[in-house]
Fold this sequence. Notes:
- The protein is an alpha/beta fold.
- Helix content is about 45%, strand content about 15%.
Amino acid sequence: MCVTEKKRAGELDVQTCRKSRDSYRRAGGIGAATAHELAREGAAVAVVDIDEAKANEVADEIRRTGAHAIALGGDLAEEDVTRSVVQATVAEFGRVDVLHNNAALTASSFLSRDTTVSEMSLDVWQRSLQVNHGSQLLMCKYTVPEMRKSGGGSIVNMSSGAALSGDRTRLAYGVSKAGVHALTMYVATSDGKQGVRANTIVPGLILTDAVRAHLSEDIVNGLGRATLTPYVGQPQDVAELVVFLASEQSRYITGQMIAIDGGMSAHVAMNTGD
């Protein structure tokens, strides 16, 4: 979520404008990296986490660099919370120009219960849809009107490579992420002429703290062999893509699904590098 001094209606430029954006997800992963990168580009950042202490930690780190940041806590799957987050950001910064929709359930204790269709518990299914998909809907619902008031903005919704192909487990996560791009396309279509752009990022293997906690080193190494690059992705790689999509440099890009996966989705067979 961002605030900016625009040179004309609908214009965003991370190099020259003062902006304020929200990063969503557990602080310490993609959200934290994105908040720091936006601040480095001159943004005033509002960091939101279900654990407000973690949001404060990231915001404090940003403030120590001399940048402007606030921290907000709450469960973005709750409509009252989402409405309050947008209102608080507008009250602090005056307007909203960029939304980075990054809330997701990534704790190993939860994902271990997200299994197959015959074993799926309804509470895991519903909670996955509420957080991974519903929070993005709610944030768009309350952010888009604010963007219209100031001539437009950019929404970056986070999906996952798990949305593009089946797996033997994590059914609810994959389904919840599969709906993200449909939301993106509908927002881009309904509000594009009002200057609102929306795009979906589809990360592959990104070495966040949550991934390291959930997957063994052997599994990570095996997945890494499927990339076409000599390295696997880091949160900073995604953060830089978010900044680009938030900026004036991407002004003619909307309604798109953009993979950042080291080429994992570009081939069918496992590339072992042998």
